Structures are given as C-alpha cells and as structure tokens.
Amino acid sequence: MSEPRGRPDANQCFVCGPDNPIGLRLPFRMEGDACRSEFTPCAAHVGYDDLVHGGIIYSVLDDVMANWLFLQGIRGHTARCEVRYREPMRLGGQLLLEGRLLRRKGRLAVLHGTARRASDDALVAEAEGTFMIVDGG
Length: 137
What we know:
Elements: E1 29-31, E2 34-39, H1 54-70, E3 75-85, E4 95-105, E5 108-117, E6 123-135
C-alpha cells in the first residue's frame, strides 16, 4: 500500500488511492524526469481468456501520467487521452509503468505513458494524454 498522499481527495482514487478498499493502490514515484510504478494484474482484472482488460490498462496509463503532475504539486484532470494497445498482457505478469511530460503550454500539459511487460520489456500499451491544469505549478 502506498503512503498517504497529503490530499484527502485523492486517497480514494481507484488506481493510486491508499484508502480505496477495492482499488489497485499503486504507489507512484518520480525517478528523474519519469513517474514510475509497477502493477501485477490478477484474476479480478481479466477481460477474457486470461488477458488483462483494456480498461484496466488504460486506467494505470492515465494514472502514471496524472501522477507525473501530482507528485510535483500540480493538479490536473484528463481532458483527452489516446491509447494504443500493442501486445496482449496475460494475468499474473508484471507491468512496468512510466509517464513523462512531453510539453506544457499554459493550462494544458501533454504527457506520454507506457506499460511494458517486465518479463521481456515488450511494449504492451502506450498513451498520450492532455491534462487541464487546475491548480499548482
């Protein structure tokens, strides 16, 4: 479980909230200019045929990008996001998540997120999201 985040409104987040009893509770951290986390999907995250549901993959990609902002004291909401699924992901394997800022102009920030299979570094999915900055930064 991740440590308390200092913003009660985020503690119930489905992906990163430490207080969400049915959430993923992923801890995010900054390493240089990248936000990172790891996620091992289980049976509760299935789409079909022991593959991870695409909506779960989208959710962790959205959060690794949003947390790039959050961990720097910037609050933003997803305005638009495009995800591309590249490889199937089986349950039980670990995903390595990474988010990076591509550019920022005024109240808009564009970020890129990746989900890679830890076992072979294959790109499972990637996303580009535009976030509306609402406070901070």
